[in-house]
Design a protein that fits this description.
Strand content: 5-15%
Shape: rod-shaped
Largest sheet: 2 strands, antiparallel
Distance between the termini: 69 Å
Order of helices and strands: HHHHHHHEEHEE
Mean pLDDT: 79
């Protein structure tokens, strides 16, 4: 049976640390060590803080071995990641997605790893992405390209045969103001969308064409 007595200085240190503790798990560890000094058994303390008696003994041993730093050190190490996040980050910078579902579909197609929408949202936040609107910037016509088009058009008319038909067609139906949707964009960065006369194309996988 281990000696669970603490000095007055140790008790004062633990109580002060307990008052400062913002992490609930750390506060429980400190509380368990303090309760042992009051003459309670490890089983009694374990029942009070809802942990295993052996865990209570381990907390006390860690404190006596290395003080508060050792007691409060969190040793949990997560499992190895199944996803290479660097290619995903590069993809999202070039192809913003509107939903976590569409990102999850792309990830499954790329790596064969399945994520729920909530799980993918956690991955995106860890990578520094937030769900926000892109930045709308005025669209500017390319004057040089317009001049080149006019030259080609006049040349085509002059060299056309009698009866040739010239047809004009818009790539998309024009509108005055584009509708901006929210998407997953890197925190602190602005993904620009030009305010031109056409809509940006939404792909089946949920990405938006640049």
């Amino acid at each position: 049976m281990i000696d669970c007595r603490l000095s007055n200085q140790e008790l004062a240190e633990l109580r002060a640390a307990h008052r400062r503790a913002l992490n609930v798990r750390k506060a429980y560890r400190i509380n368990a060590v303090i309760l042992l000094d009051n003459g309670r058994t490890a089983a009694d303390v374990a029942g009070a803080v809802l942990i295993d008696p052996e865990t209570v003994r381990t907390y006390f041993k860690r404190y006596k071995k290395g003080d508060l730093d050792e007691l409060l050190r969190m040793r949990y190490v997560g499992s190895e990641a199944l996803l290479d996040e660097a290619p995903l980050d590069a993809h999202l910078k070039e192809h913003p997605h509107l939903t976590t579902e569409s990102v999850a579909v792309w990830v499954e197609m790329r790596w064969g790893v399945c994520y729920t929408p909530n799980g993918m949202a956690a991955v995106l936040r860890r990578l520094g992405y937030v769900y926000k609107k892109p930045k709308l910037v005025p669209g500017k016509a390319n004057a040089a390209a317009q001049e080149e088009f006019l030259k080609d058009y006049e040349n085509h008319k002059q060299n056309s045969e009698e009866g040739d038909v010239v047809m004009f067609m818009d790539a998309t139906h024009p509108q005055h103001n584009p509708v901006i949707s929210y998407g997953w964009i890197k925190r602190g960065e602005k993904y620009p969308i030009k305010n031109n006369t056409g809509r940006r194309r939404l792909n089946i996988n949920g990405t938006i064409d640049p």
